[in-house]
Design a protein that fits this description.
The chain is an alpha/beta fold. 46% of the residues lie in helices and 16% in strands. α5 links the parallel β5 and β6.
Amino acid sequence: MADVVLVTGVSRYLGGQFARQLTQDPSVSRVIGVDVIPPPHDIGRAEFVRADIRNPMIGKIIAQSEVDTVVHMNVIATPTHAGGRTSQKEINVIGTMQLLAACQKAPSIRRLVVKSSAAVYGSSPRDPAMFTEDMGPKALPRAGFGKDSVEVEGYVRGFSRRRPDVEISMLRFANIIGPGIRTSLTDYFALPVVPVPFGYDARLQFVHERDAVGALLLATTGPAAGITNISGDGIITVTQAAGMAGRPVLPVPMPAAGVFGLLVKRSGLADFSSDQIQFLAYGRGLDTRRMREVLGFEPAFTTREAFADYVRGIGSALPGGAALGAAVSGVAGSAATAIGHVWAAGRND
């Protein structure tokens, strides 16, 4: 049973939501929220400690507070939110290594909960219809958040071997979505025109932000679940999602998708990466039987319902339509020439 809980990434949206709700659990006596900047939102009665998990100081905080449960939520998906790709990788990989080293030395630690991602499965045309937790990727993520997540999980498995007395719950979330959270995918579907790889219509699964917090709470205070996929039921395709958001789609040839993504990223409209383009082409499906049978969690939102709730909040949560529309029109115009050159080069090869 969790008593003194340390939560990393508490200044980020989901970390703050989780910390605030955890403080409402009467079985938890103390919640310590750690991040490099003060949280801009309410974290309930959680105590904020300004610290960087990349610094060995985190070990002193764990030891002095006699922390028994660590919830690691500071694996960052979007480079721009971390100050760039280099900073993102340092926080995700080096930060996780330092945190686990501190946990390994702390005899008080009894449980580790890690917010991981289904990005560890990658996206490829050879993927199964649904990934179970014991399946590996057909093609390992080669860059970005997916690669970081694979490395993070590797370090967690190593920690588990060194500290077999510590219970591990590692939750692999489908893309988290909702009216409050902002990610590269929420920005993508907020574009006035949604670019999609020509000839593809990827299958998507989502988990609502409230369900994500609920699953993390249960993993913290309930039974240990090991590695567990977390997603809402059902799937929707990219074009169905764009239709629900009222956005027209712009088919982009795969050879030019990276060029278009780079132009959109430079414009500041959305944060595209090579692994995201792969995901938008091939998608991903998660088997969630273990979520119900082992963790005992039942999402309140299906994939479609989670996306519909995001659409309802799309106007207020993201940049205004007129400015965004003008910017995308400029990007689309600039991309047209680049796409034409890439497409012609592809035809000449």
